[in-house]
Design a protein that fits this description.
Helices cover about 25% and strands about 35% of the residues. Bound molecules: adenosine-5'-diphosphate (2 copies) and magnesium ion (MG). The site of one adenosine-5'-diphosphate has 18 residues, from strand 13 and strand 14.
């Protein structure tokens, strides 16, 4: 076995490989780009080598730098993860030429499977069933058009070198073929530097079922059953599961044996995945082979109890496969959801930003979280915006589904947009729950999966209000402690006023809608009027940003994470995004602009910060008002001129009183 390996990857997969290596007593070397200097995979590895700038082209994709890093650190083998250089035959060859072991298949097998057309030729010769279509060498547009007409529409044009769901065009009718071909070739050349295409019959309502295979250098080859990855968006997997629902034992064996035949036909060694497209009646066709560890490998690990990275390391070290086919068994059911920083409601647009809050569900034998980031880390625009893979296991599919729902509900992320709510709807949608699977599921369930944006519910608004009040209380107590006179009533943030209960308004923005919570402080509770209804509320801060809330006679546990004016409310498995709207800072209110700025609550003018007649820019501080024991700065709503101040410093003002006369325009 190796003493030291280098992981030529980043993110969750690099962390995943390090974990197994460590358990096996193998030292690990991480590589990283400038953008990843403090990334989790770098923190976890025994040592780490900087490759270069953030762009993958200048770091993770530079084979020479990785080979150099192996030499410097004495790493004997390289695990390529997935993506990056994992299916690059020149890289595998270059490692071999330098006496470094590639933890993956022989370069010849990568090459054989690298072109979808060449792979289909080989598979056809090995009697693996193929999707009907044309995968010849001829690339003349007229010839391709004739072939498509012969296959019958709809057809799919695929870039032979394609991957990641790119370089594919669905053609519904003959007249559309020439344009679709041209556009597919354009994308293929720009994405893969190769515009060779093949044509396939487009299977309607298909399932994507793939087989995990493993081969060693001694001629053994087994299959570790199937994964169903039918839930896709734009031909990319979103949810994966094992085993495939409804798979008869006999077909499982046929598919497994077909996959083993495919692997043997190319002299395969290591972990590989043979992807099939399956019709609803179970007929299946070879689609392509991925010559690496797959993103969704954990579901296979969960149902077989095997560690596939350990298998990879053993095979690469020349050892036999740990188990024979008849020793492998399926136990229970596993689901994986890919947690991404992306906005499902905006066409899955990737999001970037800091993970201000990242609290995954607790791990157990039922719940596994594979991630490359921790709270405080950033999702950068340079790489895939995956935050984590959430994998659950249970005895049955229904059990696993319940675990997944709970785990998604418990998953707390704040600071950037994620697909967690979308995934929650996906696992709750009757088609998925009922295992009515095909690659069009997301499209078919559009209405259920992309509901109209709902107003933030009243409970969440109440919780957000209580969050603000508790936070102020907490701050006041800290300030009082620091002041040396902790019992001074002037430190109290409970709105205490002689003879009357103080009232104030706390405002939020829910999208474009302004929501006001009118709060009255009472002896030991708050009376909150919101949306025309009144609720008596109490709250108690727990650890971190969690707190217990009482709303009339109900008790809830909630969390509010605040970043600047953003508030993420975590309540009963849902996350709600609000903006704290400070009326004293509200600059776009329109009507108050020219008449003068008004006091939104009673208070005292503490300081005047500008001179009458002074020309100011938008946002220039004009006046400080002390209200509710807090200082609020009133700023210019726009560029303009201060005409007059209505009060002198030290004077009391009442709610709604005009403070500044202001002329708009410079
Ligand atoms: P990639 O290399 O991008 O993974 P694949 O050939 O594996 O490309 O196809 C990706 C996805 O596209 C499949 O999972 C499936 O959803 C869809 N697809 C591929 N071929 C067909 C086909 N012939 N008919 C219908 N859908 C297909
Ligand atoms: P500042 O930028 O002045 O330090 P922030 O408003 O960013 O203040 O808050 C700093 C810390 O206080 C953060 O950890 C934030 O999570 C927490 N915090 C602020 N307001 C609230 C609130 N309403 N509820 C819970 N936590 C809050
Ligand atoms: Mg594929």
């Amino acid at each position: 076995m190796f003493n030291k390996i280098l992981i030529a990857n980043r993110g969750e997969i690099a962390c995943r490989v390090i974990k197994t290596a460590r358990r096996m007593g193998i030292r690990t070397v991480a590589v990283y780009s400038e953008a990843d200097a403090n990334a989790r995979h770098v923190r976890l590895a025994d040592e780490a080598v900087l490759l270069g700038p953030a762009a993958a082209r200048e770091s993770y994709l530079v084979a020479d730098k990785i080979i150099e890093a192996c030499k410097r650190t004495g790493a004997q083998a390289v695990h390529p993860g997935y993506g990056f250089l994992s299916e690059n035959e020149e890289f595998a060859e270059a490692l071999a030429a330098n006496g470094i072991t590639f933890i993956g298949p022989p370069a010849s097998a990568i090459r054989a499977m690298g072109s979808k057309s060449e792979a289909k030729k080989l598979m056809g010769a090995a009697s693996v069933p193929l999707t009907p279509g044309y995968h010849g060498d001829g690339q003349n547009p007229e010839l391709l058009h004739e072939e498509a007409d012969g296959i019958g529409y709809p057809v799919l044009i695929k870039a032979a070198a394609g991957g990641g769901g790119k370089g594919m065009r669905l053609v519904e009718k003959s007249g559309d073929f020439p344009d679709a071909l041209a556009s597919c070739k354009r994308e293929a050349i720009s994405s893969f530097g190769n515009d060779h295409v093949l044509i396939e019959k487009y299977i309607t309502k298909p399932r994507h079922i793939e087989i995990q295979i493993f081969a060693d250098t001694l001629g053994n080859c087994v299959y570790l059953f199937e994964r169903d990855c039918s839930v896709q968006r734009r031909h990319q997997k979103v949810l994966e599961e094992a085993p495939a629902p409804g798979m008869p034992e006999e077909r499982r064996r046929q598919m497994g044996e077909a996959a083993v035949a495919a692997a043997k036909a190319v002299g395969y060694v290591g972990a590989g995945t043979v992807e099939f497209i399956a019709m609803q009646d179970g007929t299946f066709y070879f689609m392509e082979m991925n010559t690496r560890l797959q993103v969704e490998h954990p579901v296979t690990e969960m149902i077989t109890g095997q560690d596939l990275v350990e298998w990879q390391l053993r095979v690469a070290a020349g050892q036999p496969l740990p188990l024979k086919q008849e020793q492998l068994e399926i136990r229970g059911h596993a689901l994986e959801a890919r947690i991404y920083a992306e906005d499902a409601n905006k066409g899955f647009l990737p999001a970037t930003g800091r993970l201000i809050r990242l609290a995954p569900p607790a791990e157990s034998i039922n719940v596994r979280v594979d991630t490359g980031v921790e709270e405080g880390d950033e999702i950068t625009p340079f790489y895939d915006p995956m935050i984590a893979k959430l994998i659950v296991w249970d005895e049955t599919r229904d059990g696993a589904l319940a675990r997944m729902r709970k785990a998604l509900a418990d998953y707390q992320v704040a600071g950037l947009t994620t697909n967690i709510d979308f995934l929650s709807r996906l696992v709750a949608c009757p088609a998925f729950a009922g295992a009515d699977l095909d690659t069009g599921l997301i499209e078919r369930q559009k209405e259920f999966l992309f509901p109209e944006v709902q107003a933030v519910p009243r409970d969440a608004l109440l919780v957000a209000t209580v969050g603000e009040l508790l936070w102020e209380q907490h701050e006041a107590r800290s300030a009082a402690k620091a002041s040396g006179d902790p019992h001074s009533p002037w430190h109290a943030r409970d709105g205490w006023r002689m003879n009357l209960s103080a009232a104030r308004t706390i405002s939020f923005k829910d999208g474009e809608t302004l929501v006001d919570a009118h709060v009255r402080y009472q002896r030991d509770q708050w009376q909150i009027t919101l949306g025309g209804e009144t609720t008596m509320a109490r709250g108690k801060k727990l650890d971190g940003d969690r707190f217990a809330v009482e709303l009339d006679d109900r008790r809830l546990i909630a969390s509010v994470v605040a970043v600047d004016d953003k508030r993420s409310v975590f309540l009963q498995g849902s996350t709600y995004a609000l903006l704290r709207d400070d009326p004293l800072h509200r600059v776009d209110a329109g009507d108050s602009h020219d008449g003068g700025l008004t006091a939104p609550m009673p208070g005292k003018v503490v300081a005047l910060l500008a001179q009458p007649g002074q020309k100011v820019e938008k946002g220039t501080p004009l006046l400080i008002l002390e209200a509710m024991k807090m200082e609020h700065t009133i700023t210019a709503p726009a560029a303009g001129t201060v005409k007059a101040f209505c009060y002198a410093a030290g004077e009391q003002v009442s709610d709604g009183a005009p403070l500044v006369e202001f002329d708009l325009g410079s």
